[in-house]
Structures are given as C-alpha cells and as structure tokens.
Amino acid sequence: KMAIIKICLLLFAAEASAGGSKSSRYVMGLDGGTESVRCGVFRSDGTCVATAAAEYPTSFPKAGWAEQNPDDWWNCLAKAVREALELSSKEGVTGADIAGLCMDTTSCTVVALDKDGSPVRPAIIWMDCRAAAEAEAVIDLGRGDRALEVNCAGEGPLSAEWMLPKALWLKRHEAANWAKAETVCEYQDFVNFKLTGRWCVGSCGVATRWHWDAKKVLDQRNCKQPVVAGDGRPLSLLERIDLRDLAEKWPYSNPTDLVATGEVVGGLSAAAAEALGLPEGIPVAQGGADAFVGVLGLGVASPGKLALITGSSHLHLSLAQHPAEHSGANAGAPGVWGVYRSAPIPATCLAEGGQSSTGSTLRWFRSFVDASEGAASSPLSYAELDAEAAKIGVGAEGLVAIGEFQGSRTPVTDPRARGALVGLSLRHSRAHVWRALLEATCLGTRAAIEALSSAGHGSSTEIAVAGGATKSMLWLQMHADVTGKTVVVGECPNAPLLGCAMLAAVAASLYPTPEAAAGAMYRAALRVEPQPDQVRAYDRLFEKYKKVAVLVREASRVIQDDNYAPRSRAPFGAVFAKPQLGMLAALACRSHNAAHTTP
C-alpha cells in the first residue's frame, strides 16, 4: 500500500510540474479578422476565461480596393494578447499557464514580402475585388484544367478574392513590386512566420483559396504516395495563365513545408515571446481561414455535418469524406465551391455555398426606416423589428422578398442579380417588410443547402449556427422552420476563436486530433426544433420564392442592360421569353391574393 501511495504522489508531482491536469491547462486562440485581432484565453475544456481585441485600419485607395499594413497586424496581435493576459490574471491565469496557441486569419489576404520578410506593398485583403478581370482570365485561359474543378465544376466563376487572380494582378500591374517580392503568401503564413521564424503554408488555405490538392501533398509528405515534382500544386494552371513564377514565390519547396491544420508550425520564438509576453517555445498550431476554423468552433468535425456562419453574408459549409481523386464527387456543382480536399482538417473535405447579402440587407432596411437616426431618441433596435414581425404570419401577407442585393452565389451564381420586394400593397407596413426580408434570407439558405445536397453534401438533420443570427430567436426559429432542420447554437459566441483554441489544444498534446478537441471543447447552448405546421407553410412559400427569384433575376438583367436578350433556359429549370417578364406582376398578385386573408 505504501508503494502505491508513493507512486501516486510521484505521478501527482509530475503532473503539477507539467502544468496541472488537463482541466487546469490553458490555451490561447487568436482570430485575425477584417477589422481587428481578437485574443481568447480558454481552459482546455473550452471554457472562455478572457477575451481582448485590438483594431487595425483598412485603407480603400480606389473603389473596390481594400488594403492593410501587415505591421499593423503584428502590433495589434501583441496588444490583444497582452490585454487578454492581463484580464485572465484576475482569474489566476498567467502566460506561464498557456500550453499552446493558434491563430486564424482572413482569406485570401495576399502579402508580398522582400528577401528580409518585409512587405513590399500593403496587403491586398480578402474583400478587395480589383482582380476581377484576372479572375475571368484564370477561368478562360485555364478552362479544362483539373485545378479549377473546385470552382463550380470548372465553369466558374472564380472570385477575385482568391490567390491566383490577386497574384496575377500584381504581376500585370505592379511589375517592380512583383520582381522585388521574394515571398507571396497569405496573412496566415506571414503571422506564423512572425510567431515562429518558420516559413510554411497551411493545408486549409492552399486547399480552399490556392487551387492546391492539399490531400495529395499531405499523402506525399506522409509517404503514402511517391514524391513527384509539382504533385498537388496547380502547376499546369500556372503555366496556362503565365504565372509559373508564383510557384517560386510561395513559401514551399517540398511537402514538409505544408503543415496541416492543428499540427505544430514551431515553438514561439524569443522575439515573439518578448512581444507577446508569453514564454518562449510554446507550440504554435497551424490555423486557417477564419470561417473554416469556425466550423470546428461549431463542433462540426465529421462528415455529413452542416455549419452556417452568419453575419453580413451567410456561408454554408458541409464536411464530407474524401472522394476519389477527380471523381464526379470531387468536381463540385454549379453554385457550389469545392470540394476542397483536406479542409478544414486533414481527415475531411469541404464544400461551400453562400449568400452575398443577408445581415447587410437587414442592416440597410433598419437604417432606412429608423426615424430616430440623427435625433436624440434611441435608435430602432432589431428586437423591436422582430417583435413587430412576430405578429405576422408566414408569407408576410403576400409579400415576397428576394435578398440578392449584392448578387447571388448559391444555387445560382450571378453577380448582376439584385433584390426585390414583390407583392407590395398599401396594407403592408415595415413589420411586413422586415418579416419578408428575414424569410428571404432563410429561403435562400434552404436553396443553398439543397444545392449542396444535390452535389452530395449536407445530409445532416442539424445545422450548427454562429454569428449574428444567434442574437434573434425569431430568425433562428425561421431558419429551423424553413429548412426543416434543427438549429444548434454553441455556448461560445465566437466560433473562430474557439476553433483556434481547439487547434492550440491539439498542438499542446491535450487532445490527439482536432476531432477529439471539438468533441470535448464544444458545448451546445441552444437547440431550436422545426415546428411541423410552420414547416408545411414554408414548403409552400419556398415554391413561390423559387419562381419569383427566377423572374426577378431576369428583370434585373433587363434593367441593367438595354441590349439584354433573355436566356433560353433560366435557373430552377424554368423557361422564359422576354414577353413573359410581365408574369412577374401577375405572379406577385396571385401570391398576394393567396395569402392576403383580410380585405
């Protein structure tokens, strides 16, 4: 018995010297967003101890351009970490208690650096769309290349946000900067270099925005395939678009330079440790794009599950098992991006759909009707609008909204699509319009999920939701009723920050895999079940919505182009001729009369 007691005491002492039990270890998540760096200190069970943020500026030199200074990222990162540590010290947590850290970033935010690792120009951030012509050129010149299969089965469009269009713009328009740039990479790669001193690329980033087959590179690295020069990188596509030299500028020379999400990039360097106020040598985990790391923060880490990231726009993400290379399942579908192999984590692939304007549309309408704007009275709140809309039934008494205010992405990709309110009458109030806009967002989400499903993704009966929609019970319930799926909201409101904490915990060996960390650190706080009677009502409304969306899309083109000739085949399988655009008004009247029960 004494021997057993001695062994137990020795084990306890060893555990204490290593930093305590798993429940008492801490990790740090860092979220490099569009406007700021956020830092969160988490217990290894996922409980958030403290958060802090530091904002950095964005410049807009021309319409459609958006740039940031990479040095601002680093300075704000250091500020946010130190503030978070100061706050966590009130809970008895110090820098010495941090077992690992991880950072996500916006994507694709492109950085060009000289031989010393200093920026040769401001970073071109994700929302910058100056490379629209280059994006079209990549599709046109590269048509048929397998690397483009992730762009809606190779048919495009390719967003100007991605790596290749932005790099091609730099080469075409800033030849001197292009020649000076020794390294062309992302915000993610830059910050990992600043933290560890190591240059590498991340599997999630290259799979989702660089046209790489990350799984193939990882298989080579792990000796599951022989190393063949160029395998996994889009070298043939780079040749076609006159961008072969980009491959020499990426911080990658062989498969060991690809670090998978959650793997250790390196230990925190002495310089970084001094800047952040943390001990040198803390393991730094590979992160990824903020939204995709947020999928893990929603507890979505296994095939078949659905995640919905809400904010100014909606992003629909589905995890799947790896399909066979270049199989039909790998080729994607119109309006669906992916599948991205080995994203967001090595064991899965990812399919993506989206709605361009959702929360931004609601914000626009609130400011449009807010009589208090500029006055001394309190601004009109979203809660007030929700309370008014809750008194109105499904269908807003015959008012149908189309929420494509900034173009449409999924299921129909059309940058010229525009929004509309169809069926307006003198009876309708701001409450009717608010409800119609809420419903339009949810109906668009259903259309996007159905597109993912038709491509073989998103079969789950649940949707894990994060972002602005979680602040409105009415909107959450609507999402559940329109899609017919259970909506699940997590305990932590910042899914990307929690996702980073999960990956930091893996790097610190507190959990063996990202899947295990997600299972242990994510906790659902709310489940919203679909209401059968509302589901049936929205099924009927969805059929009307699809027809109206087709007509509005056609009408938008007529308005924008005097020489527009209608397409022979419209989305959703309908066929229209130009005179039939008059059906829009007729359909609106029928829709209104069918639902308008009060004379």
Model description:
The radius of gyration is 25 Å and the shape is globular. It contains 20 helices and 21 strands. Helix content is 39%, strand content 17%.
Parts with pLDDT < 50 across at least 5 consecutive residues:
5-24, 568-599
Q: What topology, given as strand order, has the largest sheet? A: 15-16-14-13-19-20-21
How would you classify the quaternary structure? Answer: single chain
The number of E-state strands comes to 21
Structural features:
seven-stranded mixed beta sheet, six-stranded mixed beta sheet, single chain, 20 helices, alpha/beta, disordered C terminus, 599 residues
Précis, in short:
This protein is of the alpha/beta class and 599 residues long.
Helix-strand blueprint:
Blueprint: H1 2-17, E1 26-32, E2 36-43, E3 48-55, E4 67-68, H2 70-89, E5 98-105, E6 110-113, E7 123-124, H3 132-142, H4 163-173, H5 175-180, E8 183-186, H6 187-196, E9 201-202, H7 203-209, H8 214-221, H9 235-240, H10 246-249, E10 258-259, E11 264-267, H11 270-276, E12 283-285, H12 290-297, E13 306-310, E14 314-320, E15 337-341, E16 349-355, H13 359-369, H14 382-389, E17 400-402, E18 420-422, H15 430-454, E19 462-467, H16 473-483, E20 486-490, H17 495-507, H18 514-521, E21 524-528, H19 532-560, H20 583-595
Parallel strand pairs: 1-5, 5-12, 9-10, 13-19, 19-20
Antiparallel strand pairs: 1-2, 2-3, 4-7, 6-8, 11-12, 13-14, 14-16, 15-16, 17-18, 20-21
Helix pairs in contact: 3-4, 12-17, 13-15, 14-15, 15-16, 16-19, 17-18, 19-20
